[in-house]
């Protein structure tokens, strides 16, 4: 009888939810004033320790990733996704890890010291922890470093589809000594981001069992890892559905996992992550936030805690300097002066990320060592329409504010391109269009295939995103120098070129950061790329789990998965 | 009959051939499959991009890319390289077809049973409260966008779980990653818990359309002369309905069902996405997003073959249900 009543009650509850859910899911009420809940309140001041706590032994945590695993080799171009990186971090160690504060920290479980022992030639000496072993008992040695180098240096293995050769291609030699527990890397040319390589390393002794460099590299990509030198090892993989990890009994690190099982659940449609969280099928999610997702999670408080962070993805507006109108620096200055970045933020991501401010650097993110405002002094991005009009009038442009023509009398008309289907960029483009209308510039908003138009240069103005990194120096050369492969808008400034190259080949990181900022200031003054904002990240997790926190770097919140666990005391 | 089947199969080959060319060209002109790779930061080395271009045959002229695909498919059963280097398109399609089959066949079976029952009852009790109720429900389900209905069902399932303190219904996937109770009963409960919501979501939309078809067909038959004659001869009502009327009235539904099953097997796209079933529908979406030309052509082939088979089944079912039809 009682069961019957309970069941009837449940059915009624389910029925009622059918009627009310649509009203709620539209994004009705929200606690829009907060970007974090209680557990994450200290993340702004203590990003590396927030949501901490003592854990108790046992339990399972299911965490979502958004992409299926196409290759099991993280270092391969096909496997190099943020999603898979999160799993790998539990099984393959890196020498340095990207931390929540966006700086790189030495992995003291793997190495006891890493030092630059000489500036010329740049020499780095790694001392491997003597207890560090693979889960079959084989010690981690210089052989693993050598294999990782050879497969990614672009010379020894042409058929290894390395995701990046950055750093490795500049290494002259990688040698082992002290029974393989000391690794000495000598660079041909100095590499400022020397902390970047060897994240992670691959097991050379396993590779040896599977053929030459290229064959073993492909084997690593095609085979579910049955090896580990991390806190966990993979116990089960259900294709396109989940990867299950259990503690590695040979783990040599200081913090042993307290969880019995850690499951990475693949949910390819992020809109489905919140219902799964609500139904306790998963206990932690890390989707790209939208207003709907944020509001739905807020409704699950206090059982579920959340934090909106600032990611390393940053949106920007680029001008194509080969365009006949945009070749004129004054027009470029007027355009960037008229763009109101805060208004764009407020009308897009600002709807659910309170307090988000414009980004003022193209290489460093706020909080990262080296960050400095290199944009404001150029007087751009504040929506100063009157100043923009004056610039154009003074330069001899006609029809300012109505129908702009060049001093030679040609009407100014440009295209604003954004990636097809990207609502955020479409909104940004439309806001840009209305701002330009106030200057009299006719802007046509065009959805495009990003790779196609960037490669061919078939754009005038375009909005898209780059991904920042804790290792920004090498990227500067690629993105901004006149012969850099990703300088799609064709900015040419020989002085800046020299600075970018100098910054990438320094042995003094502070000096490199200053040099990079000088070059970035030049870029601001040439009005080529206007940074808009950092895209937000969003982590939601059940309150009874401790030590899970946002990490916007490429290894994601899983950077410390060995510390995750059920709270010893209820919060 | 056999000659008819063979003739139909051969007639479909040029259609298949033409459609693969069309899809190939559409995908090829829609963008660069290596766009994501090229836009990475830090960027991949040029050698990696070259290797990928070679592997995906992008360094060859369009006609040669297509010819190689066709040749390898016919001679070796090779569906061509996917954008994802470790994916074997043929195996992937096979795995996913099984997932979709499980979802579609169960939901179709349930929808069909309910559609026939309610269609017949509605027709027999035309303009009664029952008829109006079924009509209202039919149109309600027809009008409901399937993704919205799926989300409503999920919410209902979650509310039920929370109210009972159980984990009866699941909202993602077709099975749990691992089970605490790994007994046979535990597995059955787990699979059923994952199947209920997507099956209802997919089945109700089909049910709504089919019940209307069945009602209309049944009404037409019930008002025909031979049914009137059967009644006049004094046959029992049940005998008239089941043996004489229903058998004839099932013919239109047979056609519709066969065609709908074919379409659903091609990919219950929305249901699979909302409930995270990794079937053919999701495969199609992923292939489109990744501009994975050979994967899309593989999907097209499988879907087209399914459509051809089910069309054939529909035609053959005619001859079973209607003795007047004989294929030569």
Helix and strand topology:
The complex is a heterodimer of chains A (571) and B (328).
Chain A: H1 2-25, E1 55-56, E2 60-65, H2 82-88, E3 96-98, E4 104-106, E5 111-119, E6 122-128, H3 142-150, E7 171-177, E8 182-187, H4 204-208, H5 213-222, E9 232-238, E10 242-247, E11 261-266, H6 273-278, E12 284-285, H7 291-298, E13 304-319, H8 329-338, H9 341-347, H10 385-394, E14 413-419, H11 423-437, E15 442-448, H12 450-456, E16 461-467, H13 473-480, H14 494-504, H15 509-525, E17 529-542, E18 545-546, E19 565-567
Parallel strand pairs in A: 2-11, 14-15, 14-16
Antiparallel strand pairs in A: 1-19, 3-4, 5-6, 6-8, 7-8, 9-10, 10-11, 12-17, 13-16, 13-17, 18-19
Chain B: H1 2-30, H2 35-38, H3 46-55, H4 62-76, H5 89-124, H6 129-143, H7 146-164, H8 184-222, H9 225-232, H10 237-265, H11 269-275, H12 280-289, H13 293-321
Describe the structure.
- The complex is a heterodimer of chains A (571) and B (328).
- Chain A has 15 helices and 19 strands.
- Chain A is α+β, with helices and mostly antiparallel strands and 571 residues long.
- In chain A, strand 3 (96-98) and strand 4 form a beta hairpin.
- Chain A is globular and about 75 Å long.
- Chain B has one domain (2-23, 88-321): MetI-like (MetI-like fold).
- The chains are: A alpha+beta (571), B mainly alpha (328).
- At the A-B interface, helix 1, strand 11, helix 6, helix 12 and strand 16 of A face helix 2, helix 3, helix 7 and helix 11 of B.
- Chain A: This is Solute-binding protein family 5 domain-containing protein.
- Chain A: Residues 108-487 form the Solute-binding protein family domain.
């Amino acid at each position: 009888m009682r069961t019957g009543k309970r069941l009837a009650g449940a059915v009624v509850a389910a029925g009622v939810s059918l009627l009310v859910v649509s009203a709620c899911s539209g994004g009705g009420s929200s606690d829009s004033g907060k970007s974090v809940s209680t557990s994450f309140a200290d993340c702004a001041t203590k990003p590396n320790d927030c949501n901490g706590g003592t854990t108790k032994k046992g339990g399972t945590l299911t965490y979502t990733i958004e992409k299926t695993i196409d290759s099991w080799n993280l270092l391969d171009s096909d496997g190099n996704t943020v999603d898979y990186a999160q799993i790998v971090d539990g099984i393959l160690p890196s020498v340095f890890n990207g931390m929540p504060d966006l700086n790189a920290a030495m992995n003291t479980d793997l190495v006891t010291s890493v030092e630059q022992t000489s500036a010329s030639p740049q020499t780095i000496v790694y001392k491997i922890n003597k207890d560090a072993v693979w889960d079959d008992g084989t010690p981690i040695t210089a052989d693993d470093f050598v294999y990782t180098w050879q497969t990614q240096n672009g010379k020894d293995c042409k058929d290894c589809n390395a995701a990046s050769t950055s750093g490795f291609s500049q290494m002259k030699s990688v040698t082992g000594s002290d029974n393989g527990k000391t690794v000495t890397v000598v660079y041909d040319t100095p590499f400022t981001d020397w902390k970047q390589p060897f994240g992670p390393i691959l097991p050379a002794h396993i590779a040896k069992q599977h053929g030459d460099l290229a064959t073993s590299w492909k084997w690593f990509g095609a085979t579910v890892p049955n090896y580990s030198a991390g806190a966990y090892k993979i116990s089960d993989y259900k294709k396109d559905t989940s990867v299950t990890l259990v503690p590695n009994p040979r783990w040599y690190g200081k913090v042993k996992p307290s969880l019995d099982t850690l499951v990475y659940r693949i949910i390819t449609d992020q809109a489905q992550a919140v219902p799964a969280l609500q139904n306790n099928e998963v206990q932690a999610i890390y989707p790209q936030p939208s207003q709907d997702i944020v509001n739905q999670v807020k409704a699950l408080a206090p059982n579920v805690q959340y934090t909106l962070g600032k990611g390393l993805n940053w949106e920007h507006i680029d001008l194509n300097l080969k365009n006949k109108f945009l070749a004129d620096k004054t027009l470029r200055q007027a355009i960037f002066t008229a763009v109101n970045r805060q208004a764009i933020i407020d009308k897009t991501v600002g709807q659910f990320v309170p307090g988000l401010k414009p980004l003022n650097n193209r290489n460093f993110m706020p909080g990262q060592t080296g960050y400095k405002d290199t944009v404001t002094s150029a007087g751009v991005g504040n929506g100063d329409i009157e100043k923009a009009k004056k610039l154009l009038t003074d330069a001899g442009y006609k029809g300012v504010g109505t129908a702009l023509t060049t001093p030679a009398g040609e009407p100014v008309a440009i295209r604003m391109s954004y990636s097809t289907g990207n609502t955020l960029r479409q909104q940004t483009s439309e806001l840009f269009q209305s701002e330009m209308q106030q200057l009299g510039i006719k802007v046509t908003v065009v959805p495009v295939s990003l790779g196609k138009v960037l490669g061919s240069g078939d754009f005038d103005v375009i909005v898209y995103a780059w991904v920042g990194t804790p290792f920004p120096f090498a990227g500067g050369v690629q993105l901004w120098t006149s012969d850099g492969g990703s300088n799609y808008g064709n900015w040419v400034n020989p002085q800046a070129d020299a600075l970018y190259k100098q910054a990438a080949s320094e042995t003094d990181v502070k000096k490199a950061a200053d040099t990079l900022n000088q070059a970035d200031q030049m870029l601001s003054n040439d009005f080529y790329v206007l940074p808009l904002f950092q895209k937000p990240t969003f982590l939601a997790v059940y309150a009874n789990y401790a030590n899970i926190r946002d990490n916007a770097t490429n290894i994601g919140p899983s950077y410390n998965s060995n510390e995750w666990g059920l709270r010893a005391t209820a919060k | 009959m056999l000659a008819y089947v063979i003739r139909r199969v051969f007639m479909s080959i040029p259609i298949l051939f033409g459609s693969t060319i069309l899809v190939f060209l559409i995908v090829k002109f829609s963008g660069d499959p290596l766009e994501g790779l090229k836009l990475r930061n830090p960027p991949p080395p040029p050698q990696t991009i070259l290797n990928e271009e070679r592997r995906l045959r992008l360094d060859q002229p369009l006609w040669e890319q297509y010819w190689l695909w066709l040749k390898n498919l016919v001679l070796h059963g090779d569906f061509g390289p996917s954008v994802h280097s470790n994916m074997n398109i043929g195996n992937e399609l096979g795995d996913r077809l099984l997932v979709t089959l499980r979802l579609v066949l169960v939901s179709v079976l349930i929808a069909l049973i309910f559609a026939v029952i309610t269609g017949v009852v509605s027709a027999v009790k035309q303009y009664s409260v029952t008829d109006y109720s079924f009509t209202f429900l039919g149109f309600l389900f027809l009008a409901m966008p399937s993704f919205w209905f799926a989300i409503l069902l999920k919410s209902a399932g979650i509310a039920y779980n929370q109210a009972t303190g159980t984990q009866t219904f699941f909202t993602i996937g077709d099975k749990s990653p691992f089970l605490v109770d790994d007994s046979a009963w535990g597995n059955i409960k787990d699979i059923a818990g994952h199947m209920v919501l997507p099956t209802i979501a997919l089945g109700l939309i089909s049910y709504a359309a089919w019940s209307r078809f069945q009602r209309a067909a049944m009404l037409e038959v019930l008002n025909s002369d031979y049914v009137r004659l059967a009644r006049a001869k004094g046959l029992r009502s049940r005998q008239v309905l089941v043996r004489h009327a229903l058998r004839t009235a099932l013919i239109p539904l047979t056609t519709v069902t066969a065609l709908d099953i074919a379409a659903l097997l091609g990919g219950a796209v929305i249901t699979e996405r909302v409930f995270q079933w990794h079937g053919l529908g999701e495969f199609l979406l992923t292939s489109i997003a990744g501009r994975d030309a050979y994967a899309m052509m593989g999907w097209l082939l499988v879907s087209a073959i399914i459509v051809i088979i089910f069309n054939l089944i529909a035609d053959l079912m005619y001859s079973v249900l209607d003795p007047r039809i004989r294929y030569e």
